[in-house]
Specification:
elongated; 7 helices
Length: 202
Amino acid sequence: MKVWVLAVITMTLSATAAPAADPRYPDWPCTQAKVPEISLAAVWAGPPLDDVQNKWKDDAEVSALVAKLSARKTPLDEAEKSVKELLAASGSDKAAKAKLLFAGLFDTLNAQRSQVMNGLERVSRKQREAADKIREDALQLQALQGATPRDEAKVEALSNELIWKTRIFEDRHKVVRFVCEVPTTIDQRLFALGRLIQQEME
């Protein structure tokens, strides 16, 4: 009964439970290299931000804009328009506002990115546990299929359970592949907004 189930399960697990590419991060499931934090130097060539670190939270206008710009649901062109409007209205405070705004974006997007990456590693650990359980159940199914007399009801029940677990495993793997793109998207967003802020300061 459903002997093909074992072949499907074996193919699924071998395709989706590959070892980590970087031994330093055994739980990292993405093909993209794990970079734990965005380097400030990689996204900001403007004036030093040492004098504004954490002070952006004290500026209600900047804080509100940081929250809007950091949300991935806010289209980049809309975010860029909001940056220009804020800085254009800042007058002599433009440089200070610009630094506060980027400091806020850097802190917030780096934190978002870390949250996404930690979530990916948690899911990766669950996937490894799920793969181990599926393998155990597959071995049990093999034993049931080879038993004499053969309990067809148990074979049927375990086959169905394995199909269900494998489907969940595959669905989760597809989600992970999609979410693996998010840190790169955050990097690109921060770089684009940082470049715009620097241009508007000049």
